[in-house]
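Proteins fold reproducibly. Next comes a concrete instance:

***
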Amino acid sequence: MNKKITKFEQEVYEACSRIPLGRVSTYKDIAVYIKRPSSARAVGNALNRNPYAPKVPCHRVVRSDGSLGGFALGSLKKEFLLSHEGLKILKGKIRDFKQSRYSFE
């Protein structure tokens, strides 16, 4: 499939690519970083269609409360990937979320 990537999706994928191994960011953080602060849901939709996974690590994006959120391959796969990268997950949330959160500053 050769689906054309929109400018918005390109910005989302580039931002997501900056999240380092063992860290997470939020849909809202990415929306703010790409200067579209009210587009957190659209960020999630773009990541759900991510054609560049795993190079663009969309599994490292979670909800603002530290809960895992959605994942195209399912929540168990997302939890496995994050755990494999060293993150601790407790009851569907990133443990030590504030310390694990990546800042785009």
Remarks:
- The radius of gyration is 13 Å.
- The chain has one domain: 7-100.
- Strands lie at 25-26, 61-62, 89-90, 93-94.
- The CA atoms of residues 83 and 102 lie 16 Å apart.
